[in-house]
């Protein structure tokens, strides 16, 4: 049986008790650049989001899971987005909230668990990720887990200081046509 538990972390569905964590993360301006966020979220809006988080991936075309350590503390989020069951593909994104928890294998474990889940349970053929060119830690993570660099979107993300390139990565499931 497939488990969404690794050695250091596990993945779980969003719960109403995640409101404060979600509020803090979604309003962290340092990650707005990678999330596409351009304005703060209120707790009211996030509460409504949590109330609808149970909706099926086939209906809403996305899935967000909490990355929790073995002490049951939420340390990040991992997302499946642009879910396309006809073409058996989806985008994937990950954020570990506290920089002190980064580069310790937690993101790699979460990403590996989610890749296994999307390939075996959702029967996807491929996953893709978009990563800012300067985000060397994320680039290393995705390459380590078998994602291949397939292109560069030039000056794709607008920031306060100008435009940044975004690299597109893809992982194709090799065992099933």
TrEMBL record:
Q: Any idea which GO molecular function terms this record carries? A: acyltransferase activity, transferring groups other than amino-acyl groups
Q: Which PROSITE patterns match?
A: GNAT
Task: Recite the UniProt keywords alphabetically.
Answer: Transferase
Q: Name one Pfam family in it.
A: Acetyltransf_3
**Where in this chain does the record put each N-acetyltransferase domain?**
9-173
Recorded hits in InterPro entries, A to Z, give:
Acyl_CoA_acyltransferase (IPR016181), GNAT_dom (IPR000182)
Annotated protein name in UniProt: N-acetyltransferase
Q: What is the lineage of its organism?
A: Bacteria, Pseudomonadati, Bacteroidota, Flavobacteriia, Flavobacteriales
């Amino acid at each position: 049986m497939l488990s969404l538990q690794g050695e250091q972390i596990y993945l779980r569905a969003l719960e109403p008790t995640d409101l404060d964590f979600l509020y803090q993360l979604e309003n962290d301006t340092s990650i707005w650049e990678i999330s596409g966020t351009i304005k703060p979220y209120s707790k009211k809006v996030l509460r409504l989001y949590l109330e609808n988080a149970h909706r099926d991936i086939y209906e809403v075309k996305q899935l967000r899971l909490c990355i929790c350590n073995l002490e049951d503390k939420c340390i990040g989020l991992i997302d499946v987005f642009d879910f396309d069951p006809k073409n058996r593909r989806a985008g994937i994104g990950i954020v570990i909230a506290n920089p002190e928890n980064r580069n310790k294998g937690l993101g790699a474990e979460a990403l590996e668990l989610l890749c296994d889940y999307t390939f075996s349970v959702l029967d996807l053929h491929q996953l893709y990720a978009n990563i800012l060119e300067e985000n060397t830690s994320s680039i290393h993570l995705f390459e380590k887990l078998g994602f291949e660099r397939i292109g560069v979107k030039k000056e794709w993300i607008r920031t306060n200081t100008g435009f940044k390139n975004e690299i597109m990565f893809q992982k194709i499931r090799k065992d099933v046509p």
